[in-house]
Specification:
This protein folds into 2 domains: about 140 residues, Probable inorganic polyphosphate/atp-NAD kinase, domain 1 (Rossmann fold, 3-Layer(aba) Sandwich); about 130 residues, Probable inorganic polyphosphate/atp-NAD kinase, domain 2 (Tumour Suppressor Smad4). The protein contains 6 helices and 19 strands. The strands form 3 sheets. Strands 7, 8, 9, 10, 11, 12, 13, 14, 15, 16 and 17 form an 11-stranded antiparallel sheet that branches. The longest helix has 20 residues.
Length: about 290
């Protein structure tokens, strides 16, 4: 089996010894280890002794890609692989990581099960954004915000050419079910269970006080027309962005493409949801006040 390992440079110094231990365990299990250029140079120079060769992460596609960090690392790596990554095993480090399977301290404990194929695959559909010649994908959400600090934007939102609402607001979130636990949740949207393919429309501080989040079926196309002002559309927390001017129309819908995630069943959806909502009150699987 080929095991890929990916992390961000900013956390490497804090977890270098753990990554080296993972590499040694994979070597003992006769697994090929694939790393990005940064990790390859750092580990071969400082942390791993002896005769050990690392394949290139992008040139030689691994069977499983272990990401160490948080949800932001997973969002980044989907773009690193141009939205065709290997099955991702998310491992959290100093963050909750709703997309992560377990914390870094448990990785060595479960690594043998992963190498032996004792896991299942969960698919999460991507969203597709189109604005003129601009085309891009996202895993979480699209957030539209005013280009002028402190000013409302006026938009018209349509579903399959039927007007849903027209109003002034601070911003608008168009989300996949995966993104429902991110910015959309903070803006008052619901958490959507894993496995459901939906489109979520969440207004941010609308001038229309009765406007609420809307859940749409997966085959719907959402159009956003800017009626006045300028806006900035941020995809997946700003990993990609595009400017919208008055009269521009952006469309959002679910793509047929999906990202595969590795799950070993140690941290199910409901536990993640409880941890996310309760925060520091949720300790050792017990809600404490």
């Amino acid at each position: 089996m080929k095991i890929g390992i990916f992390t961000r440079k900013k956390v490497f110094d804090k977890i270098a010894n753990i990554i080296a231990s993972i590499v040694r365990r994979c070597e003992q299990k006769k697994c090929e280890v694939l790393l990005d250029e940064f990790l390859r140079s750092m580990l071969m120079n400082s942390y791993v002794r002896g005769k050990m060769y690392f394949g290139d992460l992008r040139a030689n596609r691994p069977d499983i890609l272990i990401t160490i960090g948080g949800d932001g690392t997973i969002l980044y790596v989907t773009r690193y692989f141009d939205f065709h990554p290997p099955p991702i095993l998310g491992v959290s480090f100093k963050s909750l990581g709703f997309l992560c399977e377990f914390p870094l301290c448990d990785l060595l404990k479960y690594l043998d099960d992963i190498i032996e194929g004792k896991f299942c695959i969960i698919k999460r559909r991507l969203g597709k954004v189109v604005l003129g010649s601009f085309r891009d994908y996202l895993l979480n959400d699209l957030v539209i915000l005013s280009g002028s600090h402190g000013k409302l934007i006026k938009v018209k939102v349509s579903v399959d050419d039927h007007t849903l609402f027209q109003t002034r607001l601070d911003g608008l979130i168009l989300s996949t079910s995966t993104g429902s636990s991110a910015h959309a949740l903070s803006a008052g949207g619901p958490i959507i269970e894993e496995g459901l393919s939906i489109v979520e429309v969440v207004p941010i501080c609308s001038f229309s006080t009765f406007l609420r989040p809307v859940i749409l079926s997966p085959n719907r196309k959402v159009s956003v027309e800017v009626l006045s002002g300028s806006c900035m559309a941020l995809l997946d927390g700003g990993l990609s962005r595009v400017t919208l001017k008055a009269k521009d129309k952006l469309t959002f819908r679910l793509s047929r493409r999906s990202i595969k995630f590795v799950s070993i069943g140690k941290r199910d959806f409901y536990r993640k949801m409880t941890e996310r909502m309760m925060g520091d009150y949720y300790l050792d699987g017990i809600i404490k006040f």
